[in-house]
Amino acid sequence: MAVNYEKLVSDLVKPLVVHPDDVEVKKLSEDDKLVTVQVLVHQDDLGRVIGKNGRIANAIRTIAYASASREHKKITINIDAF
Amino acid sequence: MKTLNFEAKSIEEAMEHAERTFRINREYITLTTDEKKSMFGLKKHYEVTATVDVDLEALGLKVLKTMFENMGIENVKISHETPEKNEFNFIIESDENPVLIGKNGKTLENIQFYLRNLLNIFTDERVIVFVDIGGYKAHRKKQLEILATKTAKEVAQTKVAVKLDPMNAYERRIIHTKLADWRDVDTKSAGEKQDRHIVIKPKK
């Protein structure tokens, strides 16, 4: 079963933020090697999602990466504010 | 738990203020309000107590379950315990433990880090989160203790300091603790960030 990366990432980001309704996760591209996911959050929430030294962003990336590796894919996640 | 006392002109204003101050979504905020009227009953305002009281264990479980479900990992069993207040242990078993543990436990570390950060948002007290998958950390602890003892014996004998591979704080702590009461060796951490490692030195 193919993994829904948008849902995986969105379910990780939403609990962290003050404005979950302003979280937008889009899959920019997917082929048999690489998935690119774009995460947009409210300006005030950007720090929450990135974390000190980007450690929360990295944690989210690592979890997504593990999930993608099961399908022998790589994943990149871009995080930005509106 | 977080609490905040303040005055507001309306309930909506109170909620907005609480949301902004706590930096927590209103879904998790409870307001207790007391309506106060001015002398002639012309103006009114509210005395508000806002509280955030989230069942952190339940939230942690929910987030983990959703995560594994989204990853498509099957037969996930999560047992949990709270040895002390604000201390949460989540012990995970699944059909695909290696995927969840990752290379050198990297994915496991990140799952724990993510969860600890998440739960810490909802309280002013310090929350300790421990996650283990398929007994990885328990096993790793045993290995590190064996390594520590073996290396310490060597150092005690040869009187030459030995540098161990870089490790994270948790792993270094296991070694420091294991060798703390040794008479002939001392442990020190050296190096920065990714390169932070333990040096076992002979005691003079």
How would you characterize this protein structure?
The complex is a heterodimer of chains A (82) and B (204). By secondary structure, chain A is an alpha+beta fold. Helix content of chain A is 35%, strand content 28%. Chain B has three domains: 3-52; 56-134, K homology (KH) domain (GMP Synthetase, Chain A, domain 3, 2-Layer Sandwich); 138-202, R3H-like domain (Ribosomal Protein S8, Chain: A, domain 1, 2-Layer Sandwich), CATH 3.30.1370. Chain B is elongated. The N and C termini of chain B lie far apart (49 Å). Classes of the chains: A alpha+beta (82), B alpha+beta (204). The A-B interface holds A 1, 3-4, 7-8, 11-12, 15-20, 44, 48, 51, 55-56, 58-60, 62-63, 65-67, 69-70 and B 19, 23-25, 59, 63, 66-67, 70-72, 96, 99-100, 102, 106-107, 110-111, 113-114, 117-118, 121.
Secondary-structure blueprint:
The complex is a heterodimer of chains A (82) and B (204).
Chain A: H1 5-13, E1 24-30, E2 34-41, H2 46-50, H3 55-69, E3 74-81
Parallel strand pairs in A: 2-3
Antiparallel strand pairs in A: 1-2
Chain B: E1 2-8, H1 11-22, E2 29-37, E3 44-52, H2 56-71, E4 77-81, E5 87-93, H3 97-101, H4 106-121, E6 128-133, H5 136-158, E7 162-166, H6 169-179, E8 185-190, E9 197-202
Parallel strand pairs in B: 5-6
Antiparallel strand pairs in B: 1-3, 2-3, 4-5, 7-9, 8-9
Helix pairs in contact in B: 5-6
Short recap of the structure:
Chain A is of the alpha+beta class. Chain A has helices at residues 5-13, 46-50, 55-69, and strands at 24-30, 34-41, 74-81.
Provide key terms for this protein:
heterodimer; A: alpha+beta; 3-stranded mixed β-sheet; 3 strands; B: 204 residues; alpha+beta; GMP Synthetase, Chain A, domain 3; Ribosomal Protein S8, Chain: A, domain 1
- Low-pLDDT sequence parts of chain B: none
**Helix content, binned percent of chain A:** 25-40%
**Coarse structural class of chain B:** alpha+beta
Counting H and I runs of at least 4 residues, what is the number of helices of chain A? 3
Strand content of chain A: 25-35%
Q: Mean of the pLDDT scores of chain B?
A: 92
Work out the number of β strands of chain B: 9
SSE ordering of chain A:
HEEHHE
What summary fits the major beta sheet of chain A?
3 strands, mixed
Q: Pair with the most extensive interface? A: A-B, 28 and 24 residues
The order of strands across the largest sheet of chain B is 1-3-2
Strand content of chain B: 25-35%
CATH class bucket of the largest domain in chain B: Alpha Beta
What is the β-strand count of chain A?
3
Distance between the termini of chain A: 32 Å
According to CATH, the fold-level topology of the largest domain in chain B is GMP Synthetase, Chain A, domain 3
Reported for the largest beta sheet of chain B, the result is: 3 strands, antiparallel
